[in-house]
Design a protein that fits this description.
The chain is an all-alpha fold. It has five helices and no strands. The chain has one domain (about 10-100). Helix 1 runs parallel beside helix 4 and helix 4 runs antiparallel to helix 5 (about 90-100).
């Protein structure tokens, strides 16, 4: 797996601050998309960096990864809090499903035995 190159811890800190400021200004939760844009990378590259095996990273890259993982966790928490607000939040649901593995509750399969009585007494 090819890991996107991010060399500057300062640049990452600045990008996180910029993304948080934009989200605050707009009154919306911080998103992976916004943070990736501030880092000038795609969402997919951002997620690749987060999911990288720490043992394949240099010490500098590992520090950057920890910083980005912290931001990623804050993003997830913000989206979860947004989902708990009253009203329609289809956008937050979309982001939660696409970035953080949230799913709709699946139907529970029940093992039911149903007995019909009087079936033999019905006319054809």
């Amino acid at each position: 797996m090819s890991i996107p190159i991010i060399r500057s811890l300062r640049r990452v800190k600045d990008a996180i601050a910029e993304a948080e400021a934009i989200a605050t200004e707009k009154g919306v939760p911080l998103t992976v998309e916004r943070l990736a844009a501030c880092l000038e990378m795609s969402r997919e590259d951002f997620v690749t960096y987060i999911r990288a095996e720490p043992s394949v990273l240099t010490p500098s890259e590992a520090r950057i990864r920890r910083l980005l993982c912290g931001a990623y966790q804050r993003i997830g928490a913000s989206l979860a809090e947004e989902l708990m607000k009253t009203g329609s939040h289809a956008g937050a649901q979309f982001l939660g499903k696409n970035n953080f593995g949230y799913t709709d509750k699946s139907d529970v399969k029940a093992d039911l035995n149903i007995a019909f009585t009087g079936e033999t007494e019905l006319s054809d």
